[in-house]
Write a structure and sequence with these properties.
The chain is α+β, with helices and mostly antiparallel strands. It folds into 3 domains: about 55 residues, no CATH class; about 100 residues, Tetrahydropterin Synthase, Chain A, CATH 3.30.479.30; about 40 residues. The strands form 4 sheets. Strands 3-2-5 form a 3-stranded antiparallel β-sheet, with no helix packed on it. A hairpin with a 2-residue loop joins strand 2 and strand 3. Helix 3 crosses helix 6 and helix 7 packs across helix 8. The radius of gyration is 45 Å and the shape is elongated.
């Protein structure tokens, strides 16, 4: 009986070892498998040398000296933020642009540069500073599209040799900083104060014109003067009754709707 149990335990151990070994073998085999998706391409290396460019599919490496490297061909965006640049008239501005690009040639992209993303960033940064430095601040603020107009073609000429296609160079933000910000704040305040003064002057002119017209009407129509006096004597609700002083003869005569005080006795 004991021998049977020993045989069964030995068989179980052999099966367990077989399962473990089988899993290890499958894992090793699967480690050499690469799946290239439809938005990717892959570069196949043999002994460290580029052999070919392969498309989407499932690939299995049979030897350790084979390497398949996947490269994403989709569009990507790069934000160049907070760039403080001097304009042509030495006024500082802070600019942020977005550069959209994709890999156009995987082999050239891999061979041409050790850090293609850094190369793209630096080229876009240099282009941005060059364009702003050629314009004065008034031109930049009047039309911001002058900064990114035709910038794609110029950046493409600089970055094309590393296998990247530039799809867009878009201005996102532009703000004034330092002395430029203070100068334009003062200018804006002066303009608004000037407009306010102009509106006050126009209001005063309209009021004087209205008074002059009223004076001409009263001069030729004494009845209107009497009506205006009666209207003034009525006063306004919630306020004390007014007193109207009329000039005439030797002195000024107070006119009021209140009853006259009793005459003093001699």
């Amino acid at each position: 009986m004991g021998e049977v149990i020993s045989v069964l335990l030995l068989i179980a151990a052999i099966i367990l070892i077989g399962v473990v070994v089988g899993r290890a073998v499958m894992k090793a085999l699967n480690k050499g498998e690469v799946t290239v998706y439809d938005y990717e391409v892959a570069i196949k290396y043999v002994d460290g040398k580029i052999v070919e460019l392969v498309g989407p599919g499932h690939y299995r490496k049979h030897r350790d000296n084979i390497l398949i490297e996947r490269i994403d061909m989709r569009e990507s965006s790069l934000t160049i933020a907070g760039q403080e640049v001097l304009s042509k008239d030495n006024m500082p501005v802070r600019v942020t642009v977005i550069v959209r690009s994709k890999i156009s040639d995987a082999l050239v992209h891999k061979r041409a540069s050790t850090a293609p993303a850094t190369r793209l960033y630096e080229s876009a940064q240099v282009l941005l500073r060059k364009r702003i430095g050629a314009l004065d601040l008034e031109t930049i603020l009047a039309d911001r599209t002058v900064i990114d107009s035709d910038a794609v073609a110029e950046l493409q000429a600089a970055i094309g040799p590393i296998g990247i296609e530039v799809l867009g160079f878009d201005m996102r933000d532009i703000t004034l900083v330092g002395v430029a910000k203070q100068a334009y704040a003062d200018l804006w305040r002066a303009q608004k104060e000037g407009l306010a003064a102009l509106e006050r002057a126009r209001g005063e002119q309209a009021a004087l014109r209205s008074l002059a017209n009223a004076a001409r009407m009263l001069k030729g129509n004494p009845e209107l003067m009497n009506l205006r006096v009666l209207q003034a004597l009525q006063g306004q609700q919630g306020k004390s009754s007014p007193t109207v002083i009329l000039g005439g003869a030797p002195g000024l005569v107070p006119v009021s709707k209140d009853p006259a005080p009793d005459a003093l006795s001699e």
